[in-house]
Write a structure and sequence with these properties.
By secondary structure, the chain is of the alpha+beta class. The protein contains 5 helices and 10 strands. The radius of gyration is 26 Å and the shape is flat. 22% of the residues are buried. It comes from Arthrobacter silviterrae. This is Flp pilus assembly protein CpaB. Pfam families: RcpC (PF16976).
Length: 249
């Protein structure tokens, strides 16, 4: 009887030890897998955040999470310690990474048609047709994707090879204005709050790093640009350059 009892206790101990060892192994494997993806700690929104929310209020609404480096959006905030005095430029939704571009000085909210350019970036203005900017539905504070197309000369020394690529993600729009045919011929002033129509161009001012801005200007000078409106769930993975044979396959 004692032998069977001892055998049962020993089997139970071995079973528990096995579960503990398995759990430890799985956790270690998990850590190894995450280490292989170069994880980064970024702040992720946990609950709806209204535009104009202060940093002190925001601290209870975000949480630091570990994400693979490839999944971290450009400009993602890792700490609020250096964002003192700022407020959210737009409403934020749960699950989105907190971007530096969405934190601005309170004074910028006094002008709904303009948001401050984040530190280290510079602004440039693009004049585009309405169909290239969602029919004019893009507004200051939005983030956009920048599609660049070239009809010829895709690379030095190549023959004609039309190509398109989604080159930049999460580019902050800092100002939007309209220009009718009459204002285009004037000193360049923009007419705000007009509905896009034929003969109307839209001025979109965006904030980029110097290198990215140079590429965008090159595309404006020698190619064509389309903008797409992006949101918190937009996939920012790299998209290969598209050629005609890739479309018609």
């Amino acid at each position: 009887m004692k032998t069977r009892l001892l055998g049962g206790v020993l089997a139970l101990v071995l079973a528990i030890a096995g579960v503990v060892l398995l759990a430890t192994y799985v956790q270690a494997a998990d850590r190894r897998a995450q280490a292989g993806m170069n994880p980064m700690q970024v702040l992720v929104v946990q609950q709806p955040v209204a535009a104009g929310t202060t940093i002190d209020e925001l601290k209870t609404m975000v949480k630091s999470q570990s994400l693979p480096k490839a999944a971290v959006a450009q400009g993602a905030v890792t700490s609020l310690s250096d964002q003192t005095g700022k407020v959210t430029a737009v409403a934020l939704v749960p699950g989105e990474q907190l971007l530096a571009a969405r934190l601005v000085a309170p004074s910028s909210l006094n002008s709904p048609d303009h948001v401050d350019v984040p530190k280290g970036l510079e602004e440039l203005t693009l004049k585009l047709d309405p169909e290239r900017v969602l029919g004019g539905e893009i507004k200051a504070g939005d983030t956009v994707g920048v599609f660049i197309s070239y009809n010829t000369g895709v690379a030095p020394g190549t023959s004609d090879s039309p190509a398109t690529k989604l080159q930049f993600h999460k580019v902050l729009v800092t100002k939007v204005g309209m220009a009718t045919s009459s204002t285009q011929q004037s000193s360049g002033a923009t007419a705000q709050a007009q509905s896009p129509n034929s003969g109307t161009s839209i001025f979109i001012t965006i904030a980029q790093t110097g290198a990215d801005a140079t590429a965008t200007v090159h595309a404006a000078e020698f190619g064509k640009i389309y903008l797409s409106k992006e949101n918190a769930n937009t996939n920012t993975a790299d998209v290969p350059t598209m050629h005609k044979d890739g479309v018609l396959k």
